[in-house]
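Justification of computing resources. Each target in the renewal requires a structure prediction run like the one illustrated here; the chain below, 492 residues long, is used simply to show the kind of job we budget for.
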Amino acid sequence: MGRGYTAATAVFLAIGGFLFGYDSGIISSTIVQPYFEAYMGTPSSSQTGGIVSSFTGGAIPGALSVAWLPDKLGRKMTVFIGACISVFGCALQAGARNIPMMIAGRFIAGISVGLLSAVVPMYCSEIATSQDRGKLSGLLQWMLSWGFLVAQWLGYGCFKVNSDFQWRFPLAFQVVPGLVIAAGIWFLQESPRWLIEQDRHEEARAVLTKLHGNGSNAEFLDLEFREIRDTIVAEKTLQVDSWAALLSKPSWRKRLLLGCGLQAFGQLSGINVINYYGNVIYKLLGIGTGTSLMIVGISGALSICYCTVGLYVLDKVGRVKPLIFSAVGMALALVVNAVLSQYYVVKSGEQTSDGNALRAMVAMNLVFSFFFTFTGIITWVYPAEVFPMEIRARGNSISTLTNWCLNLLFAQTAPIALANIGFKFFYFFFAFNIVATICYIFLYPETKGKTLEQIDELFGDQLVPHALEDPDGAAAAMSEKFQHVAHAETEV
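Resulting structure tokens:
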């Protein structure tokens, strides 16, 4: 099996990312579809904000549930639960008779996506080798781009249909990925690290062989198993009885701040204002609904190309350099758009017909999308890999929670800000991208090429030698500190 099987597993898990992207993307076209507006009675700005933001509101408890569900029930069962919730919420949206029913369906679907967006990268990071971990964990963003693309083009295609099918079918299609995940998750392997955490060592060793074995690397598999087992056994001696314990160690506090900070910078880049309200933004520029849907669809197609390049780069260049490149590029694209709007598109408070400026602003949105790709991928990869096993679920849950809380904030405030200050709103995101650049340069350690267990070297809290780097030292340390583990190893 080996790497191919592991990659296939990660691709399947990343269907959760497709669901995320589709659910996020379909609403931007749905709320501007003529038959949706007619059926729902032309929703007000506050109602539109409620429809959009209820999804994010649901994602908050969904992400928070990952603090305990994956540790208690396992990674596979957690994914299954998320898929089942998704099916129910999406079906409710497709059959919505009024705005409250639509909001309820969006909220329930949001719970699912919040849960899956936290557990899938963590699951992928735990089954991948160090040389593939970046690209496999980052597949969530790649599939998210596919979901967003399908949502935008399906929305554009259904715009041509003169019936309620125009908006009901795209919402009903959301059910498909949830059903696929719920049915297929049972054919995957459980995380070997979770199995070791549950003292199911023999199962973990067998899973590692299926995931990383190639028929001629038995020594590597043995050392990898020992490194994972030794580190988890050592970490289990640390008491993590409460949420406050996450802050008890300076190195854990640093990891938490880095994870939350990266997720926050992803939102503060401005991406979801452009994603959720792309059609609204183009309407402000005087671009018609059909054309705006097509532009957003083209942007979605390009983002897949960008994301493919980003995944290729991630395990070769690392995490930090692409983050710096991304933040600088986004800042420049946003400030160009803000300046174009302020001085060329809107003059003396009136909309102009400067076609060149309008085209330049559309182009800058596409440029922004390119630069965001790297931040988009790494915001899922980095938090999933920097936490030790004992606090990985909680740490990743809180990091993802940060993402969704800010997502909710901007979903609620973006329409108000765009209506009142227009594209000057982009100066706000420009400033935060500059702050992010400085933080990436000075605060974020590079994790490329290290196993999940070896990352503790970067934070100064290594408990035992790592078997892949120092097999003799690791064996001696475990024999001295944890004699019961050494004895169990000789019996296996």
